[in-house]
Amino acid sequence: MWTRLLLVDDHEVVRLGLRTLLEAEPDMEVVAEAGTADEALEQVERYHPDVVVMDVRLPGKSGLEACRLIRQRHPTTQVVILTSYLSEEFVSHALRAGAAGYVLKEVGGSELVHAIRQAREGRVAFDPQTASQMVARLRRLEAHIEESAFKGLSRREMEVLALVSKGRSNREIAHKLNLSEGTVRNYVSAIMEKLGMRNRIELATYAVQHHISEWMPDMDDD
Question: What's the topology of domain 150-219?
Answer without folding.
Answer: Arc Repressor Mutant, subunit A (1.10.10)
